[in-house]
């Protein structure tokens, strides 16, 4: 047998690197890396490839940064730019200072303003040293020529100058300032969450103009036809009942005994949190349990009555189609079928998440630690809008759960939304 | 079903590189674990309406036959009310009627061994067409120039018995083969999922106590040797899936 | 024909053996491509819980099996008959697509008895030459149970098999099979829960002196994470197992145990709807250089590879060898040659019991939910004076009551009309059977070759099967069945109907998809096609997986042994062969 092919050797090397960052103790602190290696890790913290990778799904090496992937925003599609060091179509001509200004202030070389779909509102918290490391890493990539049509937003959002006013309203540049009264671990978590990992970009509700609603920090909300779950400390809706260990396991493997990452969060786990060091995941979890800003606590809810028609119909459907995985008591099977009883995902105020999962199906995140990635089958082909509304209302209000009932109109809206989305 | 599957898969392979199916010189290469939301392959659902395969006379003959094979009696409704004729019609109009997927290349020897199974050159649809023509002629000859559906219940039972016992066989009419075919398809119709047009309201399942497609019978093991009380459910659901008065 | 870049290994077929081999070879650093002629299949899309439990589509119209229009077999009972094509599947049901027959199996996961592997020398020593039937071709396997034990273990822990051990390192365990060979440890998961029928059988059989034990099951009793990190859910006793895909990840298959890892391995790729039509050979005919396959558009491709693994179903492995001129074809007249030799099957039987006042609710079952008694299997009992070789396991299973196919009525009941209707209703929930899985010896005139008349859609000859049940098997089946009847009586059946296996073999009623032989293993290239590592004797870079390697069939379902042989072969390839590629692992 001949020696393994060059591709295999390359992959073996890449795997080796992954092992370096993921391996068990002792783990090198990111600070000890040289700039490029720190940059490589920061790119993972920032989940850059999720947006900048080749739309064909290839995210190996420089393909993870060639851009062209359409990103859905409430205002239209934004196509991500090429951030490989290609001089014509990438950032090959950018200086270190220009790169920092883009990350820190949202301003491109030449002065054009970036849209906050690029989360500079979070990256501004990153230290100059870290941003320089990202720059150093990106410049080690193979330059790939890939022109991307960036002007895909409809009027008036295609006027980049409008971002000047937006920034005045919602954006305050400035690096993260550690809280001296908190532990280094908490501060590390705060830095990652509020900076490079830009968790609030999805998990903090946006106002009409796309700015963060700070009073609802991490309270979650609708997102691209999904629902970003609350990651506040609320017992029913947030992570209040999750232990630090459970949060770490979820972010690292995409699974824990109660839940599974799916939809956009599956990508976050696969490309970002699943590749972070255990120390950083723990720091994130510690911070999320005591965030710097607490959202207003959610109001208590009374469950929809079991006498409600929707609950009876929903129970019938659940018994026939759902309990073979999620069990009759909604307990699920740890690390396989998510627990519905007490699930915060199921009880979010908005029903987009459960509707999408029930109607379209979804696959759980894949990580090397939890490779199974089982999938929920689709039901929109069989259940009509009334039936979808009933079964989702049921799982949101059975076994001690409580959440607003789902209407047939909600299901119809989701059905329309999903028409052209695989 | 096979053709639909192939075309869907081909389409996926050709268009959705994003999900790991690549249609290039490497031909149908799969890497990674492909996944698409809403990917599902439901069976074709039989819809109410006119015959798709049978002529009016053929349909009437089949309805009369299935209603004697499975008669309406004190145990409940029979084959006609259960939709067995509709089931057979829809099957014959589909891949089954065309013997799709079967090996249909010749030669077809005249005298195969019984152990060698199906060696008929005709498709199932053709066997019905010819068989029912032969039956019509046989009935006209032996039952006073009437059509099969014009026979009384007793006459039909007599006819079916003679066919089953090979007593009606002649060079023009293989009555026993037609009986076996209709009998087989009638039983399929009475007990197959209602999605295919028979077993209306799951009446075949209710007759015997088959609970259908629930997929989780763990609770049975807590109470062995006792009657299971949950109502049956089909691929279409059950009445409790709808508000009172809704369709199954 | 277009030529593709070379791979380290090409695997023909992506079912159980292809997936296991693919994973082991990729772990060893090889670049591997698997060519599968059927479609991609995945749990959520293909076995959606809202479409999977469909008896007509899958159980009757055979939606998951290879279409006979794509490939089938001609069959006859004796050499003087004209074989005719099996135009629709009946007696057996070959799989199709990724996962193969491992998608729609029931999940019985057995180890063969130690004496099954040296059956010829064992019987010869204990009973003398006279015990063997006329025209038999019974051979030792060329491998011992002890050699295979670690690989049985590996396969069982891949699958998470649910069962009760009977012999751990020589210590007989309560509640297990006292006749089984030693195992290094217990099963990965406890047995399934038992139904009413199994409880009755256990009581009756125990009182009669049997030692019944839970049938080892690939429908898992509880969630399980295997050594590859892949998790399965618990079985919910839905009653749609054999002939169906599993909707809730609770039946072990390539999909539920290996593919999530294998498909993401950077060294692996699969090509689906690509049918391998022949293996290519070097000029001197001593080495395979790759394979030729046809994609679904009809285009031909050459896939060069250093290592060729035939991992298709038993029948198609043999057919591919015959097409490609690998190994000398078997000639039943001279008894010479090896490819196609020793085709065997399984001699099963049943005893049906009709009961009053018992509710078996058999629709609440699982493919492998059952209790077994092994007293009359293999050589667990004294064959002196019995005039047959072999035996059968005795099972009381509850695996389905799907109503198109499972509506038992007592003999003499009319097939239609009100009397039929009443009998159907009265007996549906109150009938139970006891079955046996019987061994099937090999015979000079039971073999596989290429049909002279019938061709497949690509114009290639179909495989021809010449097979019948012989007096040895009929005597064995009658004997074991006679041991089942007293158990059924003790269970309290009001009426008992026995169906021991009798010839002639018919292609029509379903019997079992346990076709074996045709590329058998052994210790001698003159009498076997492959060595104990499943390596072709005279083409060392070709390995042939599967039950085609069985020299004759034992009284158990084959998948456990197929899995063990695959791991055994993979271990030899990765640890020995790759150090010295192209060389035989056993000197002839």
Strand residue content of chain C: 15-25%
Oligomeric description of these chains: heterotrimer
- Spatial arrangement of strands, main beta sheet of chain B: 1-2
Total strands of chain B: 2
Largest sheet of chain C: 8 strands, mixed
What is the terminal-to-terminal distance of chain B?
A: 24 Å
Q: Total number of β-strand segments of chain C?
A: 24
Count of discrete alpha- or pi-helical segments spanning 4 or more residues of chain B: 7
Anisotropy-based shape of chain B:
globular
Radius of gyration of chain B, in Å, reads: 22 Å
Shape designation of chain C: globular
CATH topology type of chain C:
FAD/NAD(P)-binding domain
Beta content of chain B comes to under 5%
The number of helices of chain C is 13
Describe this structure in words.
The complex is a heterotrimer of chains A (422), B (248) and C (588). Chain A starts with 5 loop residues before the first helix and ends with a helix. Chain A has helices at residues 6-22, 35-45, 48-52, 96-105, 120-123, 128-138, 162-170, 184-194, 200-203, 244-253, 264-271, 278-289, 309-326, 344-347, 352-360, 385-397, 408-418, and strands at 70-73, 76-79, 221-223, 226-228, 362-363, 375-376. The longest helix of chain A is centred in the C-terminal third of the chain and has 18 residues, at 309-326. Among the domains of chain A are: 24-170; 309-418, Cytochrome Bc1 Complex, Chain D, domain 2. Chain A is mainly alpha-helical. Chain A is built from 17 helices and 6 strands. Helices cover 40% and strands 4% of the residues of chain A. Chain B has a domain at 56-102 and 120-205. Chain B has 7 helices and 2 strands. Chain B has helices at 2-15, 56-69, 84-92, 124-142, 153-164, 175-191, 203-208; strands spanning 21-22, 29-30. The two termini of chain B are 24 Å apart. With 588 residues, chain C is α/β, with parallel strands linked by helices. Chain C has a single domain, classed as FAD/NAD(P)-binding domain (3-Layer(bba) Sandwich), CATH 3.50.50.60. Helices cover 22% and strands 20% of the residues of chain C. In chain C, helix 1 (16-27) packs parallel to helix 13 (559-575) and helix 7 crosses helix 12 (471-491). The model of chain C has no long low-confidence stretch (mean pLDDT 97). The interface between B and C is large, with 81 and 93 residues. Chain A: Residues 1-28 form the signal peptide. Chain A: Its main location: membrane. Chain A: It comes from Roseomonas populi. Chain A: InterPro entries: Cyt_c-like_dom, Cyt_c-like_dom_sf, Cyt_C_IC, Cytochrome_c-type_DH, Membr-bd_ADH_cyt_c. Chain A: This is Cytochrome c. Chain C: It comes from Roseomonas populi.
